[in-house]
Structure formats: structure tokens, C-alpha cells
Amino acid sequence: MADQLRRTVPGGIGTYVRGLVAGLRTAGPELVDLTLWTGRARGGPDPVAGLGRVVASRLPGPALTRLWDRGLGRPPGGADVVHAPSLAVPPSGPAPMTVMVHDLAWRHEPDAYPRRGREWHEAALGRARRRAALLLAPSAATADDLAAAGVPEDRVAIVEEGCDHLDPPDHEGATSLLARLGVEPGGAYLLTVSTLEPRKNLPRLLEAHALALSRLPEPWPLVVVGPAGWGPAVAPRPSVLLAGSVDGGVLSALYRGARLVAYVPLREGWGLPAVEAMACGVPVVATPMPSTGGAAFEVPPIDVEAIAEGLVAVAGDEALRVRLVAAGDRRTAGLTWARAGARHLELWRGLAAG
Question: What is the value of pTM for the model shown?
Fold first, then answer.
């Protein structure tokens, strides 16, 4: 089920879908016969096109998901296993189903979600528990949350995600974008990447950057990359440069050119931007999260002064920067989508064998 890629903000789930498809291809077409199930395609370029064989519903994706919520619209027949890449889960059919549960953050940070969002996620988790043979989690932290939600241990499997999905860097495009934002050619900057929504904790990061500016070696700006989500808009301020959404090649180049990447969400079940940055050889300031495996300079998400101190230390201490880059290289070396795809395939074979 790949309709997430058609959303205005595909987010981390969209990255997971693309990465998993690439990882399964690496495993070999002779090992897995993959069909993508989607809603009706919209007009214009289709981001699902080219990922593989597609079976499309006559309904648009949002309508199809609403049917699933009501127990209608079973998957097409003929599959050995059905996999849902998020909590948008169809009714059970003849084939066993697996569901990737990326996090249960709405339970830990309810104020960071709109009320309807919390209600939908809670109901969707209940549907996943009833309908799926196995729930997948990207980390032990999410697996622990599923256990706390009452899911038996033998119905949960951990599958770490990959981070080797970034496009080749488009340095020319990144240079052009930075020039439009006011960064001189070759000028240093700090970078943060996320959807602009309350759970990502951007207001505290902006406060921390303002506190850190006078203590940095130079008053380096903070470039904010990401689409708008829900909640209050992020207000621009001096030395905070809002880049909006960028394509994959520009993002890859921005990572590589940054003095550091800061990513301080309130809670993450995995945390893709942090390991994307590590994979690009950049030191990372982050709140504790599973993806980094302790290879980031860790700061508490609600302590603005501590975040500011982290920015100052990592921006200015060359020995620390070298250690963090080396730690990031070690952490990300094994985080490949080929490995994630092979693990999915192993679990699916076990279910199909019965």
C-alpha cells in the first residue's frame, strides 16, 4: 500500500515506502513478487509510477482509507502477505498482514497532535492489533510502547530502517537556494530538517539558536528545511532562513555543506533526518532517539539552554566534530535498505509458511 507517496507531505512514511521497495529490489526480483496497492491516481506526475506493478482502486486514496476504517475494502486477492507501511490498515483478508508502527508519539506528547489526530491514531492502533498477524517496529523504543499498549511480545518484530536513500547531491541547486536566502557562496550555516509541526519542537530550537548566536565562532544562520504541517506557523526571524520543501538532490547537498545538523523533536520512534545527516558526514545535535544510537551530541528537548550549548560546542570544537562524524559513520554503516528489505522478507516468509 503506497498511497502515502501521493500526499502533499509524504514525510518519513513516504521515505520508508521508497526505501523498502528499493531494499526488496536489492534482495532480488526472484525472491519477492511485489505489488503496490493504491487509490486512484490523480492527474499529473505520479510518484508511485516506476516503483513496480500497481493495482489501483477506483477510489481516491483518502476515500479508500475511510472505507478501511469502517472495515470495508479488502486487499486484492492472490497475495501471500499484505504489508501496511503505516497505521492506515485495510481489513484482514485471506493472506496474513504485517503493519509498520513507526511510533506511538501521540500517547507521549498528546499536545503535539490535534484532537482528531490523536483519536484517529488510537483507533487505528486498535485496528492494527486486531487485523495484523505481526506488528513491525523500527526500534526497541517503539516495541516497548507496543508492549505497554498490550500487544503480546510474540506479535512484534523490530526492523531498523535504512538511511542510504538520499539522491546524489545537487550542489549547484543548493548554492542557488542558499544565495536566495542570503547565504554567501561558501558561507557556513547550521541546518535543521523536518516537517514544521509541534512535535518537531522547532520553537525551542529557534530560541536556542538565538541564544547561541553570540557564542558561535561567527553568527551562522540556521537554515530550516521542510514543508508546513499543522499548528502555528514558524515565524521568521533574523538569522533563521526558511527554505521550505526542497528536492532530494538539493537536500543531500545542504546536508553535506552544513556546519552541523540540529534535530530536536519531542519524541521519535526512529528519527530519519538525524541519520540522513550522519550518512552525509555531518555532526548532529539531537534529542535522544533510536536512529542515532548515541552517535549524536544529545540534548534534552525541552531545555533551550542545553540545546544552545550543544550548538555552540558542536559548531566550534573541531575535535568534538571529528569524533561525532566518526561515530555517525559507524552508526550508519549498517543502516541500509537492503538489510531492512531482507528482514521484512524473512518475516513475510515465516508468516506465509504458516
Answer: 0.91
CATH number at residue 290: 3.40.50.2000
Buried b (16+ CB within 10 A) or exposed e, 173-198: bbbebbeeeebeeeebbbbbbbbbbb
Give percent helix, percent strand, percent coil of the chain, each to the nearest 5.
45, 15, 40
Euclidean distance between CA atoms 300 and 322, whole angstroms = 22
Kindly state the DSSP code that residue 315 receives in the 8-state scheme: H
Distance between CA 290 and CA 102 in Å, rounded? 11
107-157 pLDDT, tens digit per residue, is 999 988 889 999 999 999 999 999 999 999 999 999 999 999 999 999 999
Do 341 and 308 reside in the same domain of the chain?
no
Number of domains in the chain: 2
What is the rounded CA–CA span in Å between residue 45 and residue 37? 17
Rounded to whole angstroms, the Cα distance separating 319 from 66 reads 53
Taking only the tens place, the pLDDT of each residue in 267-288 is 999 999 999 999 999 999 999 9
Dig out the grid coordinates for 329 from the structure. Answer: 559513520
Q: Which domain holds residue 325?
A: 171-332
